[in-house]
Amino acid sequence: MTPDLKKKRVVIKIGSSSLTSRHGEISRRKLEKLADEVVVLKDSGHEVVVVSSGAVAAGYRKLGCLNRPDTLPEKQAAASIGQGLLMETYSKLFLSHGYVASQILITRSDFSDENRYKNVRNTLNVLLQRGIIPIVNENDTVTIDRLKFGDNDTLSAKVAGLIDADQLIILSDIDGLYNADPRKEKDAKLLEQVHEITPEIEAAAGGSGSAVGTGGMKSKIDAAKIAMASGITTFLGRSGVDNVLIDAVYEQAKGTYFKTETNTINLNQKKKWIAFNSGPEGEVVIGNHAKDLIMNKKQSLQVKGIEKVKGDFKKGAVIRITDVYGEEIGLGMVKYAKKDLLEMKETKDISVDQIAVHIEDFVCHLEVSLPVGI
């Protein structure tokens, strides 16, 4: 292992199959192995956040279910049991090495509300500065489907962006991204380096590879997109391989590394929140001239450039900005409520310097190289 003098802030996502036995219960052996590697990273000076799946998988048998439950109430009940079991095990393992673990349970609404988003960021930063190992999971016990992240791959990428991580490591039951499904194509090749998520790569993404997990390859590609848009290198590889976490941090592990070829991406926290977490409340359709001004000349959007206003939103809301052909240009924080915009549109002698969207709070589709708002 080649020494790396740079201390990294690392987010590690651990899938359900990486934590549980074939019977669906917590595997002490698997957890010990992963915890030991996290400890090596901590001892080397790296900051580590663990995004851990496995709550439902760890709890459903103790709920009395023979198989992983299908109904939402049973899943939530199983998660309430399993989350406690996971944290108890994590805490004991890390304490045995002199490290304290903390629990952070998050819902999508914690990210969609800007103040709560900042609070989560501040909490995580304090924990990391004090040497604590945060264990993050979605709050499955109370989350309903329309407010879910969908899977912990997406959650881990958003957490990585939230804390300005240097690297995201996604461990699962697969070696990495292949150019075809290796379970069906014997000549499928592992893609060791990916610098751009192309339509061909997305087409190669398959379904879930585990009976106890919720995320498949598509969710991991989406997570890599989010991380790459924030300038964060992502590694995807198989758990259970000796020293996989340590080697991944030093970019020597077998798997796929997703990273941009340049370091030109520099989204601040405001733009990260707008792009990935805000949830647009309305839509503004703009003309071609206005589109050119904000995309190519980096000017602010003026009221006279607005063709249509859709939805209902208040001052300070995040809105979707599209052109007259329906193509999404980006997301922005609007300076006026919908009713004010409509009133100004109807005013004949409106001043040309009346601005609808602050350009510094506008995230262009091209800036992040993916449909903003993912």
Number of strands: 14
- Give the % helix: 25-40%
Number of domains: 2
Give the SSE order as H and E letters: EHEHHEHHEHEEHHEHEHEHEEEEHEH
Full CATH superfamily name of the largest domain: Acetylglutamate kinase-like
Class of the largest domain, according to the CATH hierarchy? Alpha Beta
Number of helices: 13
Brief summary of the model shown:
35% of the residues lie in helices and 21% in strands.
List the helices and strands and how they pair.
Layout lengths: L8 E6 L13 H16 L3 E6 L2 H5 L12 H24 L5 E6 L1 H5 L1 H16 L3 E6 L13 H11 L4 E6 L20 E2 L4 H6 L12 H13 L3 E6 L5 H6 L6 E3 L10 H8 L5 E5 L1 H8 L5 E2 L3 E6 L6 E6 L4 E7 L3 H9 L8 E10 H4 L6
Parallel strand pairs: 1-2, 1-5, 2-4, 3-4, 5-7, 6-8, 9-12
Antiparallel strand pairs: 7-8, 9-11, 10-14, 12-13, 13-14
Description:
This protein is α/β, with parallel strands linked by helices and 374 residues long. The protein has 2 domains: 9-263, Carbamate kinase, CATH 3.40.1160.10; 270-368, Archaeosine Trna-guanine Transglycosylase, Chain: A, domain 4. The protein is built from 13 helices and 14 strands. The protein has an 8-stranded mixed beta sheet, sandwiched between helices. A 6-stranded mixed beta sheet has the order 10-14-13-12-9-11. Strand 12 (318-323) and strand 13 form a beta hairpin. Helix 1 packs across helix 3 and helix 6 packs parallel to helix 8. The chain is globular and about 70 Å long. 41% of the residues are buried. Substrate binds at residues 53, 140, 152. Pathway: Amino-acid biosynthesis; L-proline biosynthesis; L-glutamate 5-semialdehyde from L-glutamate: step 1/2. Belongs to the glutamate 5-kinase family. It catalyses: L-glutamate + ATP = L-glutamyl 5-phosphate + ADP. It is found in: Cytoplasm.
